[in-house]
Amino acid sequence: MATITCIDDLKQLYRRRVPRMFYDYAESGSWTEQTFRENVSDFSRIHLRQRVAVDMTNRSTATTMLGQDVAMPVALAPVGLTGMQSADGEIKAARAAERFGVPFTLSTMSICSIEDVAEHVSKPFWFQIYALNDDDFNRRIIDRAKAAGCSALVITVDLQILGQRHKDLKNGLSAPPKFTLPVLLDLATKWRWGFEMLGTKRRFFGNIVGHVEGVSDPSSLSAWTAEKFDPALNWDRIRRLMDMWGGKVVLKGVLDVEDAERAAEIGADAIVVSNHGGRQLDGAPSSIRMLRPIVDAVGNKTEVWMDSGIRSGQDVLKAVAMGARGVMIGRAYVYGLGAMGEAGVTRALEIIHKELDTTMALCGERRVTELGRHNLLVPRGFS
Ligand code: FNR
């Protein structure tokens, strides 16, 4: 554990321990992966103002997201198939987040169900829904999230149709995997993953399989999802989902000022400036590049968060200083989960927290809530 000092260390270990198919599923973007790469590289174009001779005692990274106290302005993003990165992965990630004091978001496309996760945590978590064109399903899953005590609904609005990821097609991605010769050869060196996976008692895709007519096992799921993702999604349908929920709502996947204005207008409690980690519209700008104009447009009407490309506490600081109330992390915690299960998610959070705290101090700030644009040197093109 002592040799794991940054998120990249977790990624290297993750790569060695998890089947290639699931590593590639996470570590990829759509088409040329330009947006996927720029999400990360654009952070390094923003510089920090180093300050000296400032009292740096009694620092705090604590703040709130959606009115909820958080140990740092970081939430775990919804990630589909998390339970294929490590057996019962959603439960492990939710528990690590709860112990650390940051929110966890469960994806509709999770392996463990809402109820499986609720059974293993004591505080409310958030539930993410795709706006599917089946109101009966939407209503039932929203009711299940309410019954499980979820405290916010995250509606993902940037996946009406799927951005193509070449690696998934080439690998024949499926959960559980089909045991072809390349998969078996890969598994020969990753037997620990297989062994743990065999030990799980969960029903795969527990939010959907067994809850929808005609979908009784994972193999019948892809036809159902292909049919249900809603190419006709519009703001009225989003509004309808918000009404069905009736509680705090986060709209995730907004990357344009006009869309952000619309999201604020219909009453989103928070929006996530996001391009889905570069997995949807390749060629779209990085999220950090779009953050500032969106904060300027709607930051006084709704909480503005961002995700896509966060790999360190320094990235968190830059996003918050640029005006984000908080950030979501996807891959950064998935690397930890695949590398070392629950302990790996905790390690990812510890690394990010320490980096955030130290960077804050070296910028001459004691409170995360006092960060601002005065801490940054931002190149042209970011505003
Ligand atoms: C995702 N993301 C995602 N988003 C969502 O709303 N529902 C989902 O089921 C998924 N699934 C998913 C799987 C994988 C493997 C990844 C990497 C991402 C997007 C996710 O919530 C978040 O927007 C990005 O992961 C943020 O980018 P970084 O932090 O991974 O760079």
Please describe what this structure looks like.
This is L-lactate dehydrogenase (Cytochrome). Belongs to the FMN-dependent alpha-hydroxy acid dehydrogenase family. FMN binds at residues 78-80, 107, 128, 130, 156, 252, 274, 307-311, 330-331. One of its GO terms (molecular function) is oxidoreductase activity, acting on CH-OH group of donors. It holds the Pfam family FMN_dh. With 383 residues, this protein is α/β, with parallel strands linked by helices. The chain has one domain (7-377): TIM Barrel (Alpha-Beta Barrel), CATH 3.20.20.70. The chain contains 16 helices and twelve strands. It has helices at 7-17, 20-26, 34-41, 82-85, 89-100, 114-120, 135-147, 166-171, 181-188, 191-198, 221-228, 235-245, 257-265, 287-298, 313-321, 331-362; strands at residues 47-48, 63-65, 68-70, 74-76, 105-106, 126-130, 152-156, 249-254, 270-273, 303-306, 326-329, 376-377. The strands form three sheets. An eight-stranded parallel sheet has the order 4-11-10-9-8-7-6-5. Helix 13 (257-265) links the parallel strand 8 and strand 9 (270-273). Helix 5 (89-100) packs parallel to helix 16 and helix 15 packs across helix 16. It is globular, with a radius of gyration of 20 Å. Bound molecules: ligand FNR. Ligand FNR is lined by residues 25-26, 39, 77-80, 107, 109, 128, 156, 252, 274, 276-277, 279, 307-310, 328-332.
